[in-house]
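DM from R.C. (forwarded with permission)

"hey, sorry to bug you on a friday — could you get me a structure for this? deadline for the figure draft is monday and I only need the backbone to look sensible"
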Amino acid sequence: MENKKEMRKWLDDMNLGHPLVVAGPCSAETEEQVLKIAHELKDTDVSYYRAGIWKPRTRPGNFEGVGAIGLKWLQKVKEETGLKTATEVANRAHVDLALEHDVDLLWIGARSTVSPFIVQEIADALEGTDKIVLVKNPVNPDLSLWLGAVERLHSANIEKLGVIHRGFSTYEKTKYRNIPEWQLAIELQTRFPDLPIINDPSHITGKRDMIFDVSQTALDLNFDGLMIETHYDPDNAWSDAAQQVTPKKLVQIMKDLRIRKETDEEAEYKNSLSNLRAQIDVLDNQLIDLLGKRMKVSDGIGELKKQKNVAVLQSNRWNAILGNMILEGEQRGLSEEFILKMFKAIHQESINHQEKIINA
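My reply, with the result:
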């Protein structure tokens, strides 16, 4: 896919002066609910009102959306508030109905992005459209699959394109519902700086009290906007209750976010510096996470050594690790002195963990 500046023309033409905000309920539940939330959002930074009409659920039996009737409610939103509308589409039938009801922004969900067949079907149905089409990252951290979906849409002569970063599924227990894997989004931006990228902190966090922090990280990493699920009564929402915020809370989040603008050389320098520092913060958090996992493995080794009455320090093993890490470090531009200091500290912490277990 060529890196074309016109891909972000639709966003630049909006001339917002603030990040793009797409907000609204996870699911359209009733006409009253849809219109009430829309009216609470109409005089805010929200440009697009989102609502899930068809809800792909992991297992059957849960609420799977109201269906096409919800599109009529979105039409009323546009008529009564002036807000543009947005919804997810997962097949040709969804696309046809959304276009028939003049939905302004369509997005392809994470479960659909994993299937080139589904993406191609949607691309064929949308060929040549002037609607905005955004692609959520696939559920698995596969940058090629994500970009492949964008390429299929671009090949269908769809010019108003962008992506949504909503995090990635994992079997591990973390503080996130879907781990952000920020480095994938950073790589995407590096390769295609003119492809608009929107962050979805609702699906990344799964918890409303974490939405501000993830949103701030996204803006520090030069994301173009946010998609935040919003409900006037989040605790009683029919789907994803824990991750939705009230319209009042959304307004406060947007006020509190630090938004850095490029207006001159000094501002550009500060913005670039903030972006690089945000990348370092992401990597530092990953380092801490990896070190925590390493020490859990050390705890397991300590348990085994205790059972077999084996000494904590195994010099041959330690010397072999150190030699390998020095060689690996050299290939990555890291000095031997740095590698020695770092791995000696890690080794000592590992010994401390094992001794606690053995001496318990």
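R.C.: lifesaver. The radius of gyration is 24 Å.
me: no worries. The domain at 267-358 is CATH 1.20.59.10 (Chorismate Mutase Domain, subunit A).
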